[in-house]
Amino acid sequence: MLNTVLYREYKFKFYLNANHYITINGKKGDAHPHTWEYTLDIMTENNEFVSFNNFEKVVEKYFDKYQNRLINEIAPFDKIEPTLENMAEEFIMELKDVIADCGGDLIKLEASETPTRSYILSFEKNERFITHIEKKSDEKITDLVDSVADKIMKKGL
């Protein structure tokens, strides 16, 4: 078992079955169904066992409000076009907070409306995200050093 692992990464796939329509040049298109696939890469700093269920439950709950519905009738997509790109951009910002509340960091979201089309958003090169991870790494290393120092001090006494 690796005791020095600072981060672990998990990949989850979720499916959203819903309908939407797009308005192009002022003309409303026909509502049509999709099974969108959302792949989330999540990082956790926990060296303990992480139950996949923790992340799965909160993300599935998040997507429940859209399941089997007409996306255009649900905020914010009642005001913005529910394109693959717009949906992914809304979802990643909200899911980032949902995942954080569960003890993880959302690294990347990949949205697909067909097996051949994907739209990918990532925090991996975002300076704020990198700074956040570096700070967490520094804290984790400090905790590890303190723990080792405490053990040495206890043995010395």
Strand percent estimate: 25-35%
The number of helical segments is 3
Largest sheet: 4 strands, antiparallel
Task: List the strand order in the largest sheet.
Answer: 1-4-5-6
Question: Helix/strand/pairing class, anyone?
Answer: alpha+beta
Determine the fraction of residues in helical runs and give it as a percent range.
25-40%
Low-confidence stretches: none
- What is the terminal-to-terminal distance? 29 Å
Shape: elongated
Computed over alpha carbons, the radius of gyration is 20 Å
Number of strands: 6
Mean pLDDT: 84
The string of secondary-structure elements, in order, is EEEEHHEEH
Describe the model:
By secondary structure, the protein is an alpha+beta fold. 39% of the residues lie in helices and 30% in strands. The chain is built from three helices and six strands; from the N terminus they run ββββααββα. It has helices at residues 52-64, 84-101, 127-156, and strands at residues 8-20, 23-24, 27-28, 32-44, 104-114, 117-122. The strands form two sheets. Strands 1-4-5-6 form a four-stranded antiparallel sheet, covered by helices on one side. β2 and β3 form a beta hairpin. The protein is elongated and about 80 Å long.
In short:
This protein is an alpha+beta fold.
Write the layout of secondary structure elements.
Layout: E1 8-20, E2 23-24, E3 27-28, E4 32-44, H1 52-64, H2 84-101, E5 104-114, E6 117-122, H3 127-156
Antiparallel strand pairs: 1-4, 2-3, 4-5, 5-6
Descriptors for this entry?
157 residues; alpha+beta; 4-stranded antiparallel beta sheet; two-stranded antiparallel sheet; 6 strands; elongated
